[in-house]
Amino acid sequence: MTETTAIRPHAPHAPHGPRASHAPAAARRWIALAGILLATFMGLLDVNIVTVAIPSVQHDLHATFGEVQFVAAGYTLAYAVELVTGGRLGDRHGRRRTFLTGVALFVLASVACAAAPSVLFLIAARVVQGLAAAVMLPQVLSIIQDAFTGPARATALGAYGATIGLASIAGQIVGGALLAWNPLDLGWRSAFLVNVPFGAVALLVAGRTVRESHGARARTDLIGAAVLALALVALLLPPVLEASRAVLAAGLALGAVLLAVFVRIERRQSDPLVPPRLLAQRRIVRGLLTVLAFYAGNAGFFLLLAYHLQAGLGRTPLQSGLIFAPLGVGFAVTSLAGRRFAALTSGAVLAGAGLSAVPAVVLTVPQHSQVAWLLPALTLCGAGQGLVAAPLIGKVLEGVDPADAGAASGVLLTATQIANAAGVALVGGLFARTLGAAPGRPGVPFSAYVHATALTTAAVLCLAALTAVLTAVLGRLR
After folding, report:
1. What's the CA angle centered on 325, arms 55 and 173, to 5 degrees?
2. What residues does 16 pair with on adjacent strands?
3. pLDDT at position 217, please?
4. For 441-451, how does the pLDDT look when each residue is reduced to its tens digit (9 = 90+)?
5. d(CA 78, CA 129)
6. For residues 211 and 95, what is the distance between their CA atoms, to the nearest angstrom?
7. Cα–Cα separations (whole angstroms), residue 383 to 90, 161, 344, 388, 395
8. Cα–Cα distance measured from residue 370 to residue 321, given in angstroms and rounded to the nearest whole number
9. Residue 428 near residue 323, CB atoms below 8 Å
10. Residue (of 398, 393, 403) closest to 343 by Cα position
11. The pTM is what?
12. What is the pLDDT of residue 207?
């Protein structure tokens, strides 16, 4: 493909960073993209890689089940609640500078996690790690928006979507492989140290190639940030800790009230954390609804399939991760290939076709043969999801004022995290109720997993159908 745009001339407020390379501008931005996507892979990998290591952490640090839940939840919560603030920090202080600060802090927090002498120290380090990710990751979309336009931007967003797909699957594979390999007898600590080489390369590459850019240099809306953080904690904490339905309902109600308070505060602020003009755009609102449906369905499906493979079919975490691999590969390939917005609805339909094959396989194929029959369905599903992911990001951010790029990126990523938590809570809850027991509990017959997986996948199919409808509506907006 021939690029139609080179890097735009430097604006007075967006000079090259002090260590910028003298490589040709057109080449530099693609090298810069590789650097920031490596950091994206690292940050998203950490959402999943620790899950595989949790049993080893619990045993080694003599932790309770509640404590190890917070090892995973601390990262997710800190990451989610500060994403919008992180995006605004980049707008104000410079996206390159903020990105590099986030990467450096993330690497240091990873080393602290690996060296943790106790579970409380590990939880604290995980929270810092999540905050670092919230500073680092919103800058990625802002940098892409600043450096690329036209077909080149679509290609860059496709690479971003492919990175998301690979990271979501690689967490289980890399985590399981590291525990099986056990380099230097480090055990679970290697799951954190793997971030060090990723982060070092990202710092080196991005530090020399990413140009500086700013958005609106407004003061930080501390009151709005605090209220939004409390609202997101109320919404996300019960699902990630697998709380009861009563606690989930209470969290939802409290979160809704706090979000309403947040909106009221933002409308009165001269320098709001989330400019009201963003949420006044139909594309943004409909795009966020599509993001919620799409990612909630994905997260829920990944959870129920993991339980079916490990508890139902008796596969190890590493084997389960490898079975997921075709889904991730299909996602990555079509994310790079599906550069046109017209692919949105067809991608949702294709993902739904792959999902519809799962209940058929689970209900009709013998236990020992199911994996072989599931692989084509998972590949098809991943290919469809990849056709949605990157164009959806581009469609939501299309037309956003460059001054609001950081805030818009933060809102988009926050919606993704809310969708992930909601999908796990709702689909996981339905799966457990249909199973009639806690997933993974010994003694549950395989037939129960067959019934629960088939029924719950049908519920996920409803979210895929909703995604197809919403993408059709979104695609008509110009």
Report:
1. 30
2. 211
3. 63
4. 788 899 999 99
5. 8
6. 9
7. 33, 12, 12, 9, 19
8. 16
9. no
10. 393
11. 0.80
12. 93
